[in-house]
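Protocol step 4 of 5: obtain the predicted structure for the target chain.
Materials: sequence only (see below). No template structures provided, no constraints applied. The aim of this step is simply to have a reference model before the mutagenesis design in step 5. Sequence pasted as it appears in the construct record:
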Amino acid sequence: MTWRFLPERVISRSFQAAGAAVLVLAAHAAAAQDRRVVTEPGLPAMVCATLAPTGPDDQTGSDDQTGTIQRAIDRCRAGQAVRLVAGPGGGRFLSGPLRLKPGVILWIDSGVVLAATTDPRAYDRGNGLCGTIDARGAGCQPFVTIEGGRGGGIVGDGTIDGQGGAPMAGRDESWWQLARRAQREGGKQNAPRLIVVQQARDVAFYRTLFRNAPNFHILLDGVSGATLWGIRIDTPADARNTDGIDPSASQDVTIAHSFVRTGDDNIAIKAGHGATRHVSILDDHFYWGHGLSIGSETIAGVSDILVRGVTLDGTLSGLRIKSDASRGGLVEAVRYEDVCLRGNRRPIDFDTRYDAGAGGMAIPVYRGIALSHVTGAGGALVVGGHDAGHLLEVMLDDVRFDPDAVWQTAYAQFTAGPGGVTPPPPGLSASAVPATGDRCAGRWASFPDQHP
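Step 4 output (structure tokens):
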């Protein structure tokens, strides 16, 4: 994407001179998080069925275990778990789409791989579109659907593998190759998402590895209360449209102590058909991918977001908010604290013209955005409001980037905290307290091949 600059307008004021603004920011900081009391989930106490791979399914005669797993799920009561374990022949289950009953937990044991079938017919919604390209890209159902009810989720030290890079059954093209072809041809690929949670409450994802999704990995849609703790998401950097975690029209979400590398947004907080608010992103590590993002759909509003204690190591963008006049809305009360960035092309990327050619009246407005104790290297520091009537408001306190980092600003209103910012954006003077040592030393972590 090429940034198209508007005539620059930068308004700045000192933190000390804006007492009222300090009070407002403090109030936003207190609200900007998951409102629940969130603790580390545990493994289930009650198991209704324990399954090991046993060869061909007893009803279908196939190695596909969809029927066996789904029947076990259907017999469970809320609060119980179906546990997949390794057997004498190994720990690999092959399955088509599964639906978790409300409140039921899927427990994937260490050494177990639940692999998604590569057959597009298994995911098709009835129109023969899955595995093809069209104008909508909505022809496939997800691999795992969690819908309605309270509780439930996916836990355990095993793996869910979407097999996005494997050839589709009967084809010489993978799901990811289909996505690239759709990009070239100007259409949308019909490929299944890995996990979709809809209209559910208090779901949990704990310690599981999710890899190689054909499309998005985990989508939370209309969810109230979700905890994702200690999970890993791992997909190649060139796998198109493989977002890591996408909270959409959801509230009270915590993503903590997790590791994400993927081919699109590491996280994308969306608000296309409902507001998303009260999200905590805590002590996570992000690697290749497009960044920790809000947008691009923000039309219903995004607010009360807390990002604290994260590292972004090699993401294309770092802290990112993206939208445009075709799908924009109000993004406010977003607080980034104690963040370390390196190897990013755009460590800060707050963009109200994500699609420079987009038209419409849904103007993006970003306000109450605060960065505190943020450390990065070089790259472009992009802060662009939409126009003079829609300034982008950012408070910077103890924000430090390398001297060769370059600000690219338009219609931005900056406020400096007592820790200042280096290098300063246009209109602000350098006032940061001199750095003492590398405060990100010891914070970086390699992506764990095994559960950390």
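Step 4 remarks: The chain has two domains: 1-31+319-452, 47-264. The helical segments are 19-31, 66-75, 120-123, 175-185.
Proceed to step 5.
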